[in-house]
Design brief:
Blueprint (H helix, E strand, L loop, with lengths): L14 H112 L7 H4 L11 H11 L18 H6 L12 H13 L4 H7 L2
């Protein structure tokens, strides 16, 4: 093969290789861009997902916190309601116990009063009947002593049976002194002026009260 001339263009076979390398380089560049896009997109998606997860956790935590607070409030309400109910029951029990005690005290007082009254009645029934005095028993008509034998005897012995109020001695038919007259129910304003019926009534009072000795000791009746 003869040597190539000094100024001649040498032949080469690399031009086709260069033409093939350009598309390959462009494809590689596009692949890198795509990988970067995918990487960036993936990173953004991961960040968004992380942010979404964080937000969901925060919301869940807040919801759980609210639920816990509601549960605590409900629990406080239940405890308060039970406390009020128990207090009302305690007050009612105390009131009923006090009312029962008052009723029992009244019942016991009534029973005691009834027993006391029965005792007094028994004692009164057991007391002996007083024996009438001889002067009272000598009267023939019980309360009408003035018209009994005793009354007639005393009037005859004192004033001869007269109901007149004699001057100077007073006393009427039975010769009452003022103190005896008032002791047996005579009015001071009637002393010295009372008629026979009034005098007999005072005499009856005196005999019924056991005062016959005011006359029998002196008049022999």
């Amino acid at each position: 093969m003869p040597p190539a001339p000094r100024h001649s263009r040498p032949r080469t076979t690399r031009k086709p290789a260069l033409r093939v390398g350009v598309p390959v380089l462009a494809a590689a560049t596009l692949a890198g861009v795509a990988a970067a896009f995918v990487f960036l997109s993936g990173g953004s998606a991961g960040t968004a997902a992380a942010r979404t997860s964080h937000n969901m956790i925060a919301v869940t935590t807040a919801t759980s916190s609210l639920t816990s607070e509601d549960a605590m409030m409900n629990m406080h309400h239940v405890v308060a309601a039970r406390t009020v109910r128990d207090t009302a029951r305690t007050i009612r029990r105390k009131y009923l116990a006090r009312l029962a005690a008052v009723r029992l005290a009244k019942k016991q007082a009534a029973q005691q009063a009834a027993r006391q009254a029965a005792r007094q009645a028994a004692q009164a029934a057991a007391k002996p009947t007083p024996t009438p005095s001889p002067a009272a028993s000598s009267t023939s008509s019980g309360t009408d002593a003035a018209h009994s034998a005793l009354g007639i005897c005393i009037r005859n012995a004192e004033e001869g049976g007269s109901y007149a109020w004699g001057p100077g001695n007073g006393g009427g038919a039975y010769q009452f002194v003022l103190g005896t007259w008032e002791t047996y129910g005579g009015a001071a304003s009637q002393y010295g002026v009372a008629g026979p019926a009034y005098q007999d009534q005072i005499f009856d009072n005196a005999i019924a009260a056991g005062g016959a000795s005011n006359w029998t000791a002196y008049d022999g009746c």
